[in-house]
Amino acid sequence: MAERGRPKGANGEESRALLLEVAANEFAQNGYHKTKVSSIVKRASLSQPSFYLYFKNKEAIFEELEDLFRLRMIEFAKKSRLEPDLQLSTLKERIVYGLQNLLEYLAKNPDLTQIGFYISTRANEVKKQLVEQIKENLDFEVNVGYFRKDVDTQMVAESLIGIIERLTFSQLLSQQKEPAQIANNIVDLLLEGILDN
């Protein structure tokens, strides 16, 4: 028998996931302050008591979405560290691959991306954590010989996050360019510059 307030045939995990999905869309479209629990449950075809089975309040569901975005971004940043002994010909391909995976995730989750990069009051904290992880990766990669010893890894890490954030807004979420195009453009810019040799 279906729990009261839950669509027939739905289980608790499905209802919770649906609430998260709908809430992400509501927050992305309307902002934090204009989003109401009543609008979330209405769009999810659930009752307000069902909402409170899974989340204490609006703040709790928003914080969970913020945490989900932060954890996923840190995971992508950690996975992007280049392994020792990569062949030089595959170095660029490996960087593009990691960046493309990140951009594909952002494109597939536009509402969560809006929350994590732009709406959340913790967005700057998340970006700072990403910068720290990328700097740590770059320091490792400089030490194994992939990049110049005199490179300012802090500046590169901050620049990369700035580029990703801006291009996500202006190119990716607006669907002007595909993740692969953006990843290749970023890597070309950072590895080869803009000089005409």
UniProtKB/TrEMBL annotation:
Feature: DNA-binding region: 36-55
Presence of keyword Repressor: yes
UniProt-recorded Gene Ontology molecular function terms: DNA binding
Keyword tags: DNA-binding, Repressor
Keyword Signal: no
HTH tetR-type domain residues: 13-73
Protein name: TetR/AcrR family transcriptional regulator
Organism expressing this protein natively: Lysinibacillus antri
